[in-house]
Amino acid sequence: MFxxxxxxxxxxxxxxxxxxxxxxxxxxxxxxxxxxxxxNSRLFSYFVKQNVLVxxxxxxxxxxxPFSHALPFIFKLYPQYSSNLxxxxxxxxxxxxxxxxxxxxxxxxxxxxLLRSVANFPILCIEGDDYFFSVLETNSAQFSDVHLAxxxxxxxxxxxxxxxxxxxxxxxxxxxxxxDGNGIQLEALSDILKDHSAFQQAKLLKVDTDGFDNKILRxxxxxxNAARPVIFFEYDPYLLAKQGDDGLSIFSTLSSIGYTxxxxxxxxxxxxxxxxxxxxxxxIELNNYYSGREGKRYCDICVFHGEDEDxxxxxxxxxxxxxxxxxxxxxxxxxxxxxxx
Length: 341
Description:
By secondary structure, the protein is of the alpha/beta class. The chain has helices at 9-24, 34-49, 71-77, 83-95, 110-116, 130-140, 189-192, 213-218, 221-227, 237-242, 249-256, 280-290, 309-339, and strands at 53-58, 61-66, 101-104, 123-126, 146-149, 152-153, 158-160, 162-167, 170-175, 184-187, 204-207, 230-235, 259-266, 271-276, 299-305. The model is unreliable at 333-341 (pLDDT under 50).
């Protein structure tokens, strides 16, 4: 591998791109390419350690992403991943022509690319991790009206003894016992929005922060009560428990400020069910189903305020039709493949 060190930077990046694409879409294993597969795997590990950036298409746009990022492999395994949020945003935009969106845990900007593939509206991306924020800056430069805030969002504005942990393209905070002053400054969403006043009435809020989601929502009730946005957030009892969160209480919090209906999706993007926040038994069963999965299986939840029940019903109708069509097409393709075996 030491020969790679001496390659010109442009040639090295081209080589890295080729290795990455080979790993994401490998050819069928044969005796002839067994050696190539083994060599490519070693090269892949090398480029991961070097934090090389490669190109990857998300929606209609080409993004830069870290070599170790799991996103290409997630899309390969789950083609519908995150497309649900894009469809929902498109429907919300039809009702609210002045739509603005807040993306907490923006990572490298992949959500922006998906959303801009269906509609054009202002987006505030909030990302605290230094490395991911630098990639986010690079990727967001191709879009207009995308605003960035390098912040870690918490349930309150405070300094905490914690450190970021990065793995496979995601970052989360973990508590630290040290008191050396090298902790993390958290900021409540309402404080961040003081510098981004155009988003104080944002009608769509996305939160994806690997277990801090419920805390962030609880700390944002003043914003939620005033703006009443449609909320799309990750719900993983395993990661929530690591933050001392019981999971279920977030539904009572949301219900108390006027939220009434939810749509539930598998982490793969597949639609699961709809529910009424007043039906506590359904929520308990939902929590129980995703508990004990050790983060390997979780869900995304889209929540609607009572004033947007019309949106809930129209989006639910569209989602049911979308997945019915998708499954029919998949079934039809499988049948044709079977016929030509």
